[in-house]
Design a protein that fits this description.
mainly alpha, Growth Hormone, Chain: A, 255 residues
């Protein structure tokens, strides 16, 4: 176990506090290319303007097939992942009779593989967007074929559906993930009461079926495009008085 000195923690906190910013343009470490990308990507999201309170369109969110497809996809991907993380040591001990040291090492391998696949898939999807004609929607659906590649899939779609309300949509999705985190160990322990190979096979078969559901749900109803109800106000529909110029050059206020 590595003990981190308290003064080191204070230094890290001070460093993070000094580099914080409430707008991309105020971030000291950001590059011009990154600012340009963020600005263009959020052209309709009032970036850089005075912060206003947004009313979350919960009815639109609850009635959106694309949102529910992403929620189900994230839930179905996280369920077998939680099974693997929480119960792989028990499975290796009960069925293969591995010792605790070997069980710990083997149990860490899937998590390490998941980390590598997340990093590799993120770079791969960026490369596909830049060097192919594939659209973001197509890439997100293609990556759903592999459980370890769901980060650029349903999780990317989750924050792309409504950028202005991504916090609400993501929180809504992970509410169900948290509920499944409570139900998962209860169901698994009920099935694998005796720790036999047959019982553990049943646990992993159920996880496999759940992991396959997003292949149908997300590819049919899922999307990575901004939904119509989440699009920001266009310049042509902005509220308030607008000015137009008459033929004599004087401005005229239009209600």
């Amino acid at each position: 176990m590595v003990v981190v000195p308290k003064h080191s923690e204070k230094t890290n906190v001070k460093t993070l506090a000094a580099s914080r910013a409430d707008k991309p343009s105020k971030q000291s470490c950001i590059t011009d290319a990154e600012i340009k990308f963020i600005t263009l990507a959020n052209v309709n999201e009032d970036v850089g303007k005075k912060r206003i309170d947004r009313k979350v369109p919960w009815l639109r969110i609850l009635c959106s097939p694309a949102v529910w497809a992403s929620v189900i996809a994230v839930l179905c991907h996280e369920f077998p992942l939680m099974t693997m993380i929480m119960f792989l040591p028990s499975y290796l001990h009960d069925v293969h009779h591995y010792k605790s040291t070997k069980t710990g090492i083997l149990s860490a391998l899937p998590t390490a593989s998941l980390l590598l696949s997340k990093l590799a898939s993120s770079y791969a999807t960026t490369w596909l967007q830049r060097h192919t004609t594939w659209k973001r929607n197509t890439i997100c659906k293609a990556t759903m074929n592999k459980n370890g590649l769901h980060t650029p899939g349903c999780q990317t779609a989750l924050v792309s559906l409504a950028p202005a309300y991504s916090g609400a949509v993501t929180g809504f999705a992970f509410f169900f993930v948290a509920c499944s985190g409570i139900a998962n160990p209860i169901i698994t322990k009920w099935i694998a009461q005796n720790g036999t190979a047959l019982e553990w096979n049943m646990v992993f078969y159920i996880s496999t079926v759940i992991a396959l559901l997003p292949l149908i749900v997300f590819n049919v109803w899922g999307s990575a495009e901004v939904q119509w109800w989440a699009a920001g106000p266009k310049a042509s529909t902005s509220t308030g008085p607008e000015k137009s110029t008459k033929s004599n050059g004087k401005p005229e206020t239009i209600a």
